[in-house]
Amino acid sequence: PKEKACCTQLTVKKLLEQKRKRETSAVHPPCSAASTSPIPPTTIAELTTPETFTFTGGAISYSDMAVSYHSCAPSHESTHSYYSSDPGPSYDSSYLPMQPEYSTQQQVSIFGDSISMPYDCSMAVPEPSVAPSWSHLSLSDNTQHIYSSSMDTLKLEEARMLLSGMDYSRATCQDEDGDTILHIYTAKGLREYAFAAAERLREVGRLDAKEHKGKTALLVAVTANQPEIVQDLLLLGADINACDFKGQTALHLAAHYGFPAVLQAILSGRPNLNLEARNFEGMTPLHCAAISHSVTIKASSAAPADVSLQAKAEEKLSCVRMLFHAGASLLSQEIKSNKTVLHLAVKEGNIKLVDYLLGSRLQNMKDFVNMKAHGHTALHMAAGLHGNQNQEKILQLLLDRGADPSIRNLENDQPAHLLQSGPQGE
């Protein structure tokens, strides 16, 4: 019978979806560890599912990458809209602008998929054609102290040999989905091969090449929760403020998914990092972190026995802390509804986040607490949390930190006018 085409149309998106499914499940069974070691250049293993990457405009293919993945079914979080400025909790709808085309390695998966087929591909060395004309970083210089404990120098040299043997178009061009070989290696988590590919692309000025959804290799590394590759790419000069077609920077993505290690790698890549970058919905990374934390808190409340949701909520709260300590402004207002992170937290009844924000040391805390979002202060929003078990605690926290109950909204209502009727409102 005719041999099946090698992982037909396998893209970065599919690689990341398979990665997420491999590492997460509703009941979180142990997942087999993925084999991320490329097959030595001198051997060509049998292909369980061959893999071909075809470029538009040429018969170029990548059949020389090896990785074995085993997938696990993802779990799901509830989703909410955060655009309404009305007091009270949000209504259910599709989650925010932050619907990446692929989400990976999340304990809680917001975006499901149906890809479940595992695959094994081999690493074959193409016949050397031209002697390499590109330079690479030596791990004996200023990078050695960073990577000596984790980067396999032998594997890195093998990767460099592989890349040097590829012709120019294979090593530097993009396929029909806009993926370069660097995007593919990054999505697979093949650190040494990604490093070698990044060196090659840097030489030709294509380190920040974007795939069809506008993601650079750095953004793919963030989405795939690959902090080491994120560090490598930043070291090699990747644009730390690059954004995709939704305006999402590396910070937005790391904050949204709740990846503290990735976020730390990005924050260490300063000084040109823009902490107040806006995505195309007008949100800063801190807004995204706050919203994502609220989503996970709600999912955890609905499934209190799920310890993985509790762990993910802690990771996302740590991302909020990291951004704040790095200098992200609590006073920033998202453009669509003028909400600050405090408005976002109060509106969802997120007592943990409210408590953290109000416990921060701001010189202008009273002004912060009384900021308005389309006329509503955080106290107005707390008054609208009818039936929420955290309403009374949040109201008290706000009042203790200087919330003014006499402020009126655009409808001339004070917070007290928005409380529910009956004994509970009293």
UniProtKB/TrEMBL annotation:
Q: Name one GO biological process term.
A: regulation of gene expression
Of the GO CC terms on this record, one is:
nucleus
Query: For the region Disordered, what residue ranges are annotated?
Result: 19-43
| Keyword Lipid biosynthesis in record | no
Instruction: Note the segments forming the ANK repeats.
Output: 213-245, 246-278, 337-358, 374-410
The cross-references to PROSITE patterns, in alphabetical order and at most eight, read: ANK_REP_REGION (PS50297), ANK_REPEAT (PS50088)
Keywords, alphabetical: ANK repeat, Repeat
- PANTHER family, per this entry? ANKYRIN REPEAT FAMILY A, NF-KAPPA-B INHIBITOR DELTA
Name by which UniProt lists this protein: Uncharacterized protein
Q: Which organism is it from?
A: Gambusia affinis
